[in-house]
Amino acid sequence: MLGQLIVSGIAIGATYALIALAMVIIYKASEVLNFAQGDMAMLSAFVAFTMLDSLQLSFWVAFPLALAFAFVLGAMLEFCFLRRAKDPNVLGLIIITLGLEMVLFGIASMIWGADQKNFAFPVSDFDVIDLGGGVVVSHLNLVTLGVAVGLMLLLFVFFRYTKTGVAMKATQQNQMAARIMGIRVNRILMLTWGMSSMVGAIAAFLIAPTDTLEPYLMWTPQLKGFSAAVLGGMTSLPGAVGGGFLLGIIENLFGGYISVEFKSVVAFVVIVAVLCIKPSGLFARHYVRKV
User: Fold this and answer.
1) Is the pLDDT of residue 208 over 50?
2) How far is CA 85 from CA 81, 107, 137, in A?
3) Could you count the other beta carbons within 10 Å of the beta carbon of residue 207?
4) Which stretch of DSSP H or E encloses residue 227?
5) 120: β partners
6) Closest Cα partner for 29 from 75, 87, 69?
7) SS3 of 136, please?
């Protein structure tokens, strides 16, 4: 039982890790917590569903087109709303993301309704691999795990070794200094939102087949992803992934040995505990900004 709980925890933790990655990408560039992340991903999943169901496109055509839509959506939200804020302090921008969350939710509900829909995916959640000792893992879980780790590595290389990635980190630490150094901060922020939206959309594509596609699809995963990011560290990509896996394991062990009914509470306990004990997260280094 213990082995299965741990493997299942790692599998569900991979989805939390993807959402955490999406939130960390924006935070690393602007220190803004994007609470519209889940609904941006949900809207992209509905666009993919329309391409698959109504337009009868193959998944391999609909998937990249939906990712392109996700990128444009994220970039346009930054350009049209966050950039237009009259007093662009962090708290005000976070409140704007909460408003965007409700707007995107309303748009999805208006267009597609509240009916639950099945999201077609080429990899099944019912086909499993026997790891021995009564421990099994589904093909979809393995794909999710591979995607989460692969994206973490790609993003780590991007932020560490590319000029754009370094510019994103510089923008987070001091936007004025970044502008003085010739960095086009507005363009960097727009790119950041687009990238984050794409990562969130990938998470939604992997979550929807295990559930049903509806406007509420990403509300719980977003909260769990935020918890994972806080646990691992909002400035650390490996920390976000590690936090997702750790949260998934803790949550599963709690549900298996203590109480299934209160399993969802674990994420919120984690947020409170980490913020009280180590606000920078378990895997991130705390830095002091000089003024």
Assistant:
1) yes
2) 7, 22, 46
3) 25
4) helix 219-232
5) none
6) 75
7) strand
Task: Look at residues 281, 286, 287 and name the one whose alpha carbon lies nearest to residue 240.
Answer: 281
**Distance set, CA 86 to CA 49, 80, 82, 89, 203 (Å):** 37, 12, 9, 9, 32
What DSSP state is assigned to residue 129?
A: E
Q: Which of 42, 116, 36, 113 is nearest to 76 (CA)?
A: 36
Q: Which amino acid is at 259?
A: S
Give the pLDDT of residue 271: 83
Count of CB atoms within 10 A of residue 34's CB?
Answer: 31
Quick one: 262 exposed, middle or buried, by C-beta within 10 A (0-12, 13-18, 19+)? exposed
Q: In the prediction, which pLDDT does 291 show?
A: 47
Express the helix, strand and coil content of the chain in percent, nearest 5 each: 70, 5, 25
Residue where the block lists tokens 């992803």: 225
- Mean pLDDT in residue range 242-270: 86
User: Alpha-carbon distance 188 to 78, whole Å?
Assistant: 11
- Mean pLDDT, residues 101-111: 95
* Domain residue ranges in the chain: 2-218
